[in-house]
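Changelog note: in this version the structure field was regenerated for every chain. One regenerated record is shown below for reference.
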Amino acid sequence: MGDLFKTDDEKDGDKGSETEDQDFKVVTQQITPKNRHKTSPLRSLYEGKIKLDRKIQQIVKGFLRRYYIAGRPLLLGFSGGPDSTALLLLLQECSRSFPIPLHVAHLDHGWRDESAQEAEELKRRVEALGLPFHMKRIKTPRGGRNLEKKGREERLNFFSALCRQEGCQALLLAHQAEDQAETVLKRVLEGASLIHLGGMKEVCHLDGMEIWRPLLRLSKKEICTWLNARGTPYLLDPANEDERFLRGRMRFRIFPEIKKSFGKDAALPLGRVGAAAQELKEYLERRVAPFLKRLEKKSDGWVLDLNPFLPLEKIELSALVRILAQREGCFLSFEAVEALCKSINAKGLCKKKASKRGEFLSGRGVLAMKNLPQ
C-alpha cells in the first residue's frame, strides 16, 4: 500500500505503535485506589479511536459480505474528497480478507482552473496503490441552469460506460449521512409523496448499473475523524461550498440555521424519516403486487381492472397510481393522483394528463394509460 493511505504508525514503523502503547501504560500505572474510576483524556481518546475504527470497518466489511460476488470487479467513483478517500482506503483494507479487483474513476468537469492539476494528483495517488485509474475531462459550461444536475448526469454516464466496459458488478459511491439528509429535506420541500421521501438506497439499479452506497450510516464527522487519526490527506472541493448551488446552500446556510434554531443536528432525524419512508414504500409495493398481475398491455398503452379489489385503501391506491406512473417515466401531480384515486373507488370517470408521455384515465373501476403521440 502506498504512503498516502498509510496510518501514522505504519509510516513510522514499529516505533509509532510502541510509543502509543508506552503512553497508554504510563497513564494506567498512575491509577490509584482514589482515582481508579476516573478515565484519563488520553485513554478516552485512544478508546474512542479504536471504537470508531471498529465501527467503520464492520459497516463496510459487512456490506461487502452481503452483496459482493467474489472475483467480480468493482468501480469506485472517486473525487478525492474525504468520503471517497475513506471508501478507497476501506476497500483496500477489505481486499486483504477477500481480494477485490477494484477500478477507480474520476470525472473532471473543468469547473475550476486547478481541477486538471488535482485530477493528475489523484491519478498519481491511485496508481501508487497499484489500481487502474480511469479519468475523463469534459468542458461543462460554468453558467446556466441545472449545472449540478448536468454534472451528475455526466458522471453517471461515464461510470455506466466503464461498468459495462470492465464488467463491474457495481459502482461504489461514497454518499454519507449528511448527503442523505440533504436529499430527504429537498424532497420534503418539493412536496414529494411519502413513498418518495426515502432518499438514497444502499443498493439500487440505474440504467442497468448496480449502485452501492455503503457509507450512508456514517456521518461526515466520523469519516473525517477516522481519516485524520490515520493522517490521510484528502481534497476539499470549493464547489461543495459554493452557495450558488443548492447543495452548498443546504450545507452552509440551511442546515446550520436549523441546528442553531432547534438546538440539534437535523441529519440523523431526517435520515430516520428517509429510512421509514423507504420501508413504507417497500411494504406498499408488496401490497399492490397482486393488482399489477391483472395489468393488460394494449397497442397504445395498458388497462388495469381493479373491480375485484374495490374499495381500496387510499394509501394503497395512491401508491399503485404513483408506481405505475413512475414505471412509465411520467409525472402526475398531487392533485391528479388524488382525483384518480377518488374516481377509481367511486367508479366514476376521470382523465388526467401525465407529463407529455400519456394520459391516465379511470372509469367504472378500471385504470388505464393511453400513450400520446410524440
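Spot check on this record: The chain has a mean pLDDT of 86. The radius of gyration is 26 Å.
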